[in-house]
Amino acid sequence: MKVVEIEDKAQWDFFVKSHALDNGFLQSWSWGEFQKSVGKKIWRLGVMDISGHIGVDELLACALVVKYPLPLGASYFYTPRGPILRAKKAGPLLVLNILDVLFHEIKIKGEKEGALFWRIDPPVFNTEGVQSLMKTLHFRKSQHEMQPKNTLIIDLRKSEEELLAAMHQKTRYNIGLAKKKGVNVRLSGAETKEGGQDFEKFWDLLQETAKRDKFRTHQKKYYEKLFQTKTGVIFIAERQGVFLAAAMVCFFNNWALYLHGASCSHQREVMAPYLLHWFAIKEAKRLGCLFYDFWGVGEGSWAGFSRFKQGFSPETPPTPYVGTWEYPLTYWRYSLYSSALRLWRR
Question: CATH classification of 151-320 is 3.40.630.30, yes or no?
């Protein structure tokens, strides 16, 4: 086996779509391009088979690796919802060999780039067996979750009537109420005439939402590049020309993924976010998507918007991921970093 950098978009996305255990979006070619657009250094690493086990020079695994900064000039590598392995054809021994080859290449690049550790959050369910495997591979549970550990995924292969019937009664009522109150929903993309103005309004609404609900946003450039690179589109709910709610949704591999949302502090009684997501769900079905991923549910500070999301499919259990793990590339520096992080969070 050998590790190479993949430069063919079609080859990369074909493998991701064919072998990702989830939607594969955060390992897609477009997500890598988006990361570059916001100033990140990336590598698209592929493990190729040259032993004849599966096929000469056949891709066995891939990992989008993104370099993130740390204080004092340090950094770390991050592979979101990856790496992706050709697991259906690979037995346990081959999987371990693939990972060993990939680890070796990550260590080499880590030494050159000053990376302390490799952070991953595999797209696999959270089970004791998976956790045990991560520890066997010398990964350590991260103190910081990069992606939501639990998400709500709605099966869009059902009819619209079945989807409506599966909703909580209050959710279904609020969709009808928003229609009755004159809320309209439309789709905006970077290529549309109103795209630039729509993004600015989305950003203003997102800042208002963050202030009200006490959460931190990325910098404006982050969302702007998502929109401009056509990685994400914006669904807008408005009434009498006033923006009431917006959602940034990405489409990949027959999935629709709701990544970012915002809502106005006024006219909340017209229930615009309910109609907004119902419109997005119907549009996803129209585009041939099989699943709508609400991208994160939980308790604590997440309880309010989690109840909102779960109202669309209350009988669907959340999908639990194994979470974020870290592989030390330099043990003593990683230990110092982990100790400092624990002290800072006390």
Answer: yes
